[in-house]
Amino acid sequence: MERLFVGVHALEHNRMAILPATAAQERSSSAIRHQEKRDRNTSGWIAGVLHRHAAPLVILMCVTLLMIFLYGQIAYNREPYAGWDLGKYRVMAQAAPGLALTGRPFAYRLLGPYLVGLLPVPDPAGFYGLAVIASFVLVILFYFFLIGEGIQRTAAVITVTFLIFNEYFFGMTLFDYFQINDLLTLIFLIGLFWAMFKSRWPLFGVFLALGALARETSLLMIPVALVYLLETGRLRREGLPFALSSVPGAVIFTMIHAFAPVSGGMGLLEAPWAYRAKVISPVIWFRLLVNSFIPLSLLPAIYFKLTLEFFTRRKYALLFVGLVLASTFFGVNNERLMAPTFIVFYLLIAEITQTSLYPRWGILIIMLGCGFVSSFHPLIARYPLPNNLTYVVLSLATLGMATAATAWGRWGEVQTRSSDPWTGSTSKYGSSS
User: Fold this and answer.
1) Cβ-contact 123, 93 below 8 angstroms
2) pLDDT digits (tens, 9 = 90+) for 96-116
3) Of 162, 194, 181, 173, which Cα lies nearest the Cα of 374?
4) N or C: the chain end with fewer CB closer than 10 Å?
């Protein structure tokens, strides 16, 4: 009897020992099934996105490939190009993983040259390869950014194509691919605006920190985000996460400027005085406000009411444009330094295209043709124009033609509605994907 009791007790003990393992196995199996379901949902979502946007993305990739070819590559080992900024960036790349001794402000723009220096290829090939990849990433991200802002697929494709045709905002970083930091900054700005809109402040902090390693421009997003939170009434709720997310980028910026090895060059506070003549030059202002956006420069004026409504709803965007414009007086370049405004300007163009131009294909084809022709340049090109005069005449001609086409279309739209020709409104054609 005693042996029977001992046997039953041992059996019960073994059964109890097995139960936790069985429960753990069930929990593990449940977790695996849940993960598999989530993976299927994620892969299904990605497949659905690719299916819906396959045609637009293919079109944009083809346009990008064409323009990568046409923008050409800088003769980096010949004068005067060898003496440009690229020489300093090459020295920085060749010193990686260490830090090179070079002049300001280039010594502070570490990210792009450092990444190139870590690649197992000669630095010119590394710079160009990274620039090409980053250009494709920029095109794809900006397309989806516009989609996320409520722009339909066709209008988004047209708008991104305008950006690709902009030789200063897009072409310059392919031609002079050693300016990889400019291109990375544009990508980070998309991430910063997206994170700000979605209240993803940890991601905002990551993009801000990366941006601080590339160029100073990303730091402009700190006051912009503050105004955004004030404008949307979310400062009390999200002010602390925003403030905390801004700390790493600000610290990195400060530390780089304090400890990066430098040998001469112009400091941040010296630059505005050195370039003060730009402020009173009408030519410089024309280049900044008109030439940077040719052939679409006057489109916001033609659709003045729509533009006014756009910035009334987005005061933070107006601040961002103003800050970028002010930052151009810290450098010798003009149109290239306006490139960060692409995210605001082309979002406005996308809204104009969607509400008032699409599907008026006659006008849109004229505008796209003007955009393509205006991309030709005496310097930034595989097949350069013969001289600056040809470039000026061609730029003004495309500006005039695109402006006339949109003004004619705007007048026709207003005549149909019997309303004021300078008030923007939603197109009678509506919008479509």
Assistant:
1) yes
2) 998 888 888 888 999 999 999
3) 162
4) N
Cβ–Cβ under 8 Å, residues 221 and 253? no
Measure the N-to-C terminal CA separation of the chain; round to a whole number of Å. 84
Contact assessment for residue 142 and residue 153, using Cβ atoms and an 8 Å cutoff: no
Residues 114, 102: contact at Cβ < 8 Å?
no
What is the distance between the alpha carbons of residues 16 and 20, in angstroms, rounded to a whole number? 7
Sequence-separated (6 or more) residues with CB below 8 Å from residue 115:
130, 180
| Spatial CA neighbour of 313 closest among 220, 228, 427, 425 | 228
Contacts of 117 (CB under 8 A, 6+ apart): 92, 93, 94, 95, 96, 97, 123, 126
Q: Are 147 and 153 in contact (CB under 8 A)?
A: yes
Q: How far apart are CA 305 and CA 425, in angstroms?
A: 8
Quote the CA–CA distance of 409 and 400 in Å, as a whole number: 14
DSSP 291-311: GGGTTSTTHHHHTHHHHHHHH
Instruction: Tell me the per-residue pLDDT of 187-244, one tens digit each, with 9 for 90 and over.
Output: 999 999 999 999 999 999 999 999 999 999 999 999 999 999 999 999 999 999 999 9
Per the CB < 8 A criterion, the answer to whether 142 and 190 are in contact is yes
